[in-house]
Structures are given as C-alpha cells and as structure tokens.
Amino acid sequence: MDQRMTAGFAPTAAPTARMENHGSTMARVAMQSGNDLFARSGSMVAYEGYIQYESNPTALRQAFAGRLTGESVPLMKCTGDGLLYLADYGAEVVCVPLQNESLSVNATNVLAFDAHLEWGVQRVKGIAKFAGQGLFNLGISGTGWVAITSRGIPVVVDCGRSGEVCVDPDALVAWSSGLEMKGKRSFKASSLIGRGSGEAFQLAFSGQGFVVVQPSEDSTDRLNAQQQN
C-alpha cells in the first residue's frame, strides 16, 4: 500500500492533551496507569498499547438510577497505558476541559469522562413541565476532561458574552451548571419552537458559563442509529 495515500488520516505522533479530537467524530484519549476513564459502553473503536475494559458496579448502579427516569447512561471503566479511540455512530465529538467546574450533560450525549471526576444523575430543576426533555441529566464536576457528542456540528455559546441565551430543549446538549436557567414561552401559538408538546417554549440561560447546542431537535436520532446497526 502506498502510505502517502493514507498519511492524511494518521493520528499525530504524540498527544498534546489527555483528551483531544482525531477528526470531528472521534476522541483520542492518552491513557496512563492510575488515570482511569469512564466511557459509554460500546464506544471503543480502536486502541494502541495495553488497555482493559470492565463494567463498574458503582457506575452501573448510577446508570440504573438514570434508567428509572428515562435517561440511560451505560458506562464501562477503561484502564491501562496507551491511546484509546472513542466514537458514537459518527456523531460530532467535543472534548471539554474542566477546571474545578461543573457541567450538566444530556445523558444521551455523554461519551467519556475522567474517572476521578465527581458525577451522578441529577434532577434538572425548572423544566419538569416541558415535554421533550428529560427531568434528569448527568452532572460532572472537578478538574479533568469530558467528551460529549452532538448530532451534527454544535454551537457553543458563551452566556457571559451574549447575555441571555434561549435554546430549544430538544437541541440542548450540555451547559455549565452555574448558569441560571428558566423556562420561557412564546405568546404566539403558531411559533412552534420545540417538537414535544405542541407549545412554543425555550430554556433561557444567563450568567457566567457556556451552553452547547446541537443542530438536531430529534431525541430519537441516536436510538434509531443503534437499531440500524
């Protein structure tokens, strides 16, 4: 094989961060002994070196708590030394570094996060009456890396710079936990923003932090992809 034909797809010689993108739809994680990772079950597409995978009882108990609310977070624990490549049915991947920060992520958009981070299924306040959005997300906090997915290229909006940011709940991927959130409704019934209830509503965020929004409002996209494979 002429290696010049594949050179553009080869990974960089050495990682520049614990977690980084290889292309837009794959995450590459530099694994080291003692620095474990939680990843979505089935997300490993390749690895270099010596890496092992196991179901973690604590993680599974927390995942089960999420299933009771309709939010499923099936996780596996990854350990070892080498390079780990993760993907989720061709979805876009965003690698987020947390610096003593907290992030709230839609369960279906969680790809991986450092195992030393604090995490758990948490109730999302203020949106229980809105259809199309689960009542619980995965809260992740501390200092480390998180990889999230998006059905299409996402937009990351800085609320501190933009002021109030309004988002369709079905397109919402993740947000900084310190943001203030409230529900808003449109006065025009014909202005159908959101696909759940037939009513026009948005989630409004304000404060210091960011919101990640995907260009897809259909929460069944990932489930359909799984059923086809």
UniProtKB/TrEMBL annotation:
One Pfam family in the UniProt entry: AIM24
Segments passing through the bilayer: none
Cited InterPro entries: AIM24 (IPR002838), AIM24_sf (IPR036983), Trp_RNA-bd_attenuator-like_dom (IPR016031)
Name of the molecule in the record: AIM24 family protein
Organism: Streptomyces radicis
